[in-house]
Write the structure tokens for this entry.
Amino acid sequence: MTTITSATPTAAHHAGSTPASTDLLVAGLGPAGTALLSAAREAGELDRWLDRGLVVVDPDGDGSGQLGGYAVRSDTTGRVFAEVGRAALRTPTADEAMLLARCDDDEPLPLRVAAQLLAMAARPTLSAVAQALVVGAVTSVTPGPEGAKVTIATAAGPQSVAARNVVIACGGRAWMPAELSGLGGAVVHSDAVIRGNVAARGHVLVVGGSHSAFSAARVLLEGGEVDRVTIAHRSPIRVTYADAAAAAADGCRFGPRDVCPATGRVFRFGGLRNDSAALYRAIRDGAETRVELTTTPVSKLVVSADLVVAATGYAERVGSLLPRGGGTCTFDTDAALHQGGRLVAGVFGLGLGSGRRRDTATGGEPSFTSTIDGVWFYRNVAAPAMLERISST
Ligand SMILES: Cc1cc2nc3c(=O)[nH]c(=O)nc-3n(C[C@H](O)[C@H](O)[C@H](O)COP(=O)(O)OP(=O)(O)OC[C@H]3O[C@@H](n4cnc5c(N)ncnc54)[C@H](O)[C@@H]3O)c2cc1C
């Protein structure tokens, strides 16, 4: 995570200032939570939110969330992050303008730099909500008929606030299926690999076919001690193309349901981009012989690997905050929380782990059925929809 700047309020300013009740509580100041507050600010809603009661909670968020901790380049282009910066900083300083200009192209960015840019872009919004910030971590959310009771661990001790609406934007938790977690110490999640926290050698089995799988494979091979990587994937590996002509030129077979109706891109959401796409093409074309792709079931492959990397994605965090025994947590298309199949009124999810799927409002190829994440998506689709949802209650 990037360094907290002087524009970011500190614990000393806010510890102990939690109100007893509030209209809205936003937990998490990563790219998703910040996108919601920025959308409110840009729409002229933030002052109304502050008047009606707003509490924002994060232990140390500067708007960049977890992105700065990864040792890889972005799967989106620098332009995406520059756009966020431009929208937020109407009169950038010379240093800010230089960083914006440096990032504003179709190349990927080291995520460390992307995080710097996001933190920079978040400053005006974080200043605007400084009076509402509680430095701490939400530890429990207990839903009730009039909203939820939220407990926050702060440096001054636990604090409690009754909130009519709660938006959980605390990021995701690395998720591993039982068949892999049961294998014990020789299994790690791709999140740890992509952070550069795993030393491996020999033959590594990567389970999954997403960006994380290819990013993990790259990091392991760059480490120099791994000589063979097997990527075991269930669904076909796809690459994102600017349009149908580019897909056809690359020998890609696709149908009408693989084309985004809004942009004409092929496999817009489901395809690999940038470094992951380059690695996939190198494997496909025989230029990268250390990596093998297979659809053989994992149970048959595990025995031959020195390490198994589960590139199996991220799940919601909200389940661990709710009272025990309520059942599985899911979010509907309005991002409202359901537990055990029942609506939990007034509790919403935003960002990584909140499971937003494709619909006509999101764009993207109709054949894509997985969850959608990304800074552009939070800023342009998820946060505006949440703003409308919250403002109408
Ligand atoms: C490896 C990887 C690479 C990615 N690369 C890209 C990319 O190139 N481009 C792109 O657009 N997207 C990318 N994404 C997807 C997405 O943009 C990021 O995951 C992004 O960090 C998600 O933002 P978030 O705000 O949902 O969560 P996070 O970034 O995890 O932020 C969560 C925030 O919540 C706070 N928090 C956590 N727990 C609590 C609590 N209990 N109470 C209060 N606050 C809490 C944290 O301090 C943090 O500030 C990538 C994701 C991963 C996993």
Observations:
- The pocket of flavin-adenine dinucleotide is lined by residues 27-33, 57-61, 65-67, 70, 74-76, 137-138, 169-171, 194, 212, 351-352, 373-376 (CB under 6 Å).
- The first strand starts at residue 21 and ends at 27.
- Residues 11-172+316-391 form a domain with the FAD/NAD(P)-binding domain fold (CATH 3.50.50.60).
- The first helix runs from residue 11 to 14.
